[in-house]
Amino acid sequence: MARKISFLNYKGGVGKTSLIINTAAALAKMGKRVLLFDFDTQSNASIWLLKLDRWNKINASGEGAIYSIFEPGKAQVKDLVIKDVLEGKSGEKLLPGLDLVPTTFNLVDLENEYNGDPKRPPFLVFYEQVQPLEAQYDFILFDCPPNILRASQCGVFTSNEIYVPANPDALSLIGFTLLTEKLHKFHQLSASFRRAAMGLPAQVHGIIFNSIKQGVDIEVPKMRMQLRLNQFKTAKRAAPSAKIFNTQIRDAMVVRRAVALGLPVSLVSAEAIETGASGDNVINDYRKLASELVQHVPAAT
Ligand SMILES: Nc1ncnc2c1ncn2[C@@H]1O[C@H](COP(=O)(O)OP(=O)(O)OP(=O)(O)O)[C@@H](O)[C@H]1O
Ligand SMILES: [Mg+2]
Predict the structure, then answer these.
(1) Computed from CA positions of residues 24, 28, 33, 38, in that sequence, does the dihedral angle turn out positive or negative?
(2) Which sign, positive or negative, has the C-alpha torsion 193, 195, 198, 201?
(3) Domain span at residue 159?
(4) Phi/psi of residue 63, each to 5°?
(5) Is the predicted pLDDT of residue 71 greater than 90, yes or no?
(6) Which of 97, 165, 204, 264 could pair with 28 in a Cys bridge, judged by C-beta atoms 3.0 to 4.6 Å apart?
């Protein structure tokens, strides 16, 4: 069965989308079967992986986007999966094993106009439709906005693990703290909808430092984050095995450039990638991160 994972922080712009896409690509390259859900109405992950032309068609019609499962009878999650989403100019598949369920801007309607049956909140509708897909994947990943509103709740409720991308600054620490509080509230609110077969409600299992500039010492922010994590573990608000990942992702221009190219960095041509004095580069960081994630299996699953 798939491991189901959300990347989440209450601080925006920390690198949730960049991390999830590049980690998903690294996992697919390792031969893992990966399904990525985009739950951020900004649609960054969808536009990145589909490129603008393919995504525009979905946005214009609304057909094929995640919101369509919440308009009763319109679509099922299984019909929205775009298999091997990455394509080259002539439609050739670039990375078999990486599938996407895209979003478009209409996902924002889930927060405002949606008027479904309160006994069947969106996160439950979503969970029930994802469940039959679990056996087909090793990893199901959810890219979430920096909140736990209805769209994010779908990812959080369905996941069993949360990883928190963070920058080495005070705002990321505040974002993590806020996330843990909101997560606790959401679990209380959604407890009556959980069944044993769903596994444990998602807790924070790891913190991943991202966008680290060369030569910058992050020991102090790391220590502060570790202290906060320890407090949450003691209070049972984070998983017992939660840790700061050994792998950190360097700040690299190619990560920003990869978005415009519509590719994960591992598929960007080698010349475009800054390589450090040791011959190491950011692709290796994502590869190491993916391996560390594969190793970091929660005790209860
Ligand atoms: N390792 C990195 N090196 C350089 N730039 C990076 C790196 N990671 C992320 N970025 C850049 O930082 C910006 C924010 O990243 P990203 O969109 O992944 O964050 P996010 O947390 O998903 O944001 P949001 O909260 O809006 O969803 C983007 O311009 C992205 O290209
Ligand atoms: Mg994002």
Answers:
(1) positive
(2) positive
(3) 3-295
(4) -80, 130
(5) no
(6) 97
Ligand 1 pocket member 88 (CB < 6 A): no
In a domain, 300, yes or no: no
Ligand 1 centroid from CA 291, angstroms: 21
Nearest Cα to Cα of residue 296 among 239, 219, 248: 239
301 occurs within a structural domain: no
> Is the Cβ–Cβ distance between 128 and 1 less than 8 Å?
no
pLDDT digits (tens, 9 = 90+) for 231-260: 999 999 999 999 999 999 999 999 999 999
Model confidence pLDDT, tens digit, residues 78-106: 999 999 999 999 999 999 999 999 999 99
pTM of the complete model? 0.97
Element (H, E) at 228: helix 219-234
Q: What CATH number is associated with residue 190?
A: 3.40.50.300
Q: Which atom of ligand 1 is nearest to the CA of 143?
A: 22
Nearest CA owner, ligand 1 atom 3? 251
CA of 17 to the centre of ligand 1 (A): 7
When divided into structural domains, the chain yields a total of 1
Tokens linked to 206 = 């790891």
Quote the CA–CA distance of 278 and 60 in Å, as a whole number: 47
Q: Classify residue 167 by its DSSP letter.
A: -
Find out whether 155 and 40 touch, Cβ atoms under 8 Å: no
Q: What does the block give as tokens for 73?
A: 């009878």
Measured from the CB, is residue 150 less than 6 Å from ligand 1?
A: no
Distance 152 CA to ligand 2 centre (A): 12
**Whole-angstrom distance, CA of residue 151 vs CA of residue 111:** 7
